[in-house]
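Hey, resending since the last one bounced:
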Amino acid sequence: MTDITSSARRLDHVILDGEMPANLSPYIEADREQAVADLAAANHFAPLIGTTDPGPYALHLSIVEGRLVFDIRDAGERRLTVVGLALGPFRRLVKDYQLLVDSHILAVHEGREQRIQAIDMGRRGLHNEGAELMTQRLAGKIDIDFDTARRLFTLVCVLAQRVPAR
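The structure tokens again:
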């Protein structure tokens, strides 16, 4: 017998809302695609405030006026609750993510395999730190597991990308 409560406490799908640069680097686009695919395959996501709906949920994730917005909806796209977090605590990690992406692109271009491996290790550490921060900031609002937090952090980094000056 399957416990419907635990299997329902999950995201059915995630939509990134708001303005995003149309010219994301292939590396960032690949990170976005992987995070969305991994979330679709497995996640734990349970709102603790604003709704008693058991899920599964549709999440519309956006950045609005310096706030990270979790617009949580039911399978029919009816809004259940909205959770907002200040983006400030994530800014350093998002900036570090962009620096790692830039370093990775340069290392690939230069064919520096050892450098690529070192950057990938740093990226994993950065994602772990981002997941811990995500879990702390959502405590008491949304219950998530570590892997879900890592993937959501990746999506926050994608949303926070700035369009390069032309």
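DSSP finds five helices and six strands in the chain.

Sorry for the duplicate.
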